[in-house]
Amino acid sequence: MFKKIISSLILFIAMISCISYAANTSADQWQWYYSDDHQSAYFNPSSVIYNRKSNTATVWRKYEILGRETPLTLHIKIDFSNKKTQMIGYINSEGSEGVVSPNEPCEGIGPGTADEALANIVADQLNIPHIYTGGSDRWQWFYSTDTESYYIATDTASYDSKTNLYSVWIKTTPTASGFNRPIHYFFDFTNRSFTLEPSTDMMYVKSGTWEEIVYNGAYNFFKKLYGSSIEKPKIDNFGFLSTQQTE
After folding, report:
1. How far is Cα 182 from Cα 173, in angstroms, rounded to an integer?
2. What pLDDT was estimated at residue 40?
3. H or E element at residue 169
4. Integer Rg of the chain from CA
5. What is the pLDDT of residue 175?
6. Which string of DSSP letters, residue by residue, matches 62-90?
7. Distance spanning both ends of the chain, measured CA to CA
């Protein structure tokens, strides 16, 4: 009898989950929020669930991608404090919800991207602040060649006192392709090094390369914000100079 009760309970929960998913992904629930030359993106307002304690929200979103027959439907977690997204579910080719590892990597929310547009429209629904201030003067030009221009997103600058790293999003706009997806950089101005992931080893900036162009642009930008203090090594809790591993 007990096993029958447990089996019935499991079946009931499964049915409720299916009904809940169907309600959250029906055709009339999708609302457009972003488009570019390659895709259009939609989200389901009724699927938004907000955790005030962690300042995170989950939401279903759908991509209609140029050249792809079926939409790409994903369940996304938005971390408004850390400015990141994480995929926590998806719809497979059979139309049912797929399982995602809890260790699925998080991705930074780049300015001007579909991820930022989603975070902003969800934030508006929740009546909470946007992750970035945005604005028409967001992108600041700092260098150009014959084929490309470099811009820094002024509203994305941050400093981590624990790692002594300055971070900011930078985009390069080639005049030929027009591709301008931003990249998140982390800089250590005490030894002319950078990385794209704060958990990885720092890399020295090579002279005469695009790395030096990006580094110099970020250096001049942060020096205006913080002054010459950006060149000072970080002092650890024991009063010693901290060091960064480089390669």
Report:
1. 9
2. 95
3. strand 165-174
4. 22
5. 57
6. EEEETT-SS-EEEEEEEETTTTEEEEEEE
7. 65
- Position of tokens 């600058």? 157
> Residue 19 and residue 8: Cα distance in Å, rounded?
16
Q: Which residues pair with 151 in a beta bridge?
A: 141, 171
Bridge-based pairing of strands 148-153 and 158-160 is unpaired
CA 55: distance to chain centroid? 15
Cα–Cα nearest to 145, from 182, 181, 176: 176
Q: Which amino acid is at 110?
A: G
Distance CA 10, CA 96 (A): 18
Token pair for residue 86? Answer: 């994480």
pTM for this model (two decimals):
0.80
d(CA 89, CA 97): 7
Residue 23 has what pLDDT?
Answer: 41
Tokens of 194: 């950078």
Distance CA 194, CA 134 (A): 25
CB-based burial label for 193 (10 Å; 0-12, 13-18, 19+):
buried
- Mean pLDDT for each 10-residue chunk of the chain (247 residues)? 46 43 58 93 98 98 90 96 96 84 91 97 98 95 93 96 94 70 94 89 94 96 90 52 37
Of 47, 41, 42, 43, nearest in space to 22 by CA: 47
pLDDT at 68 (0 to 100) = 86
30: nearest Cα among 44, 46, 47, 41:
44
Beta pairing partners, 98: 90
The whole-angstrom separation of Cα 234 and Cα 218 is 19
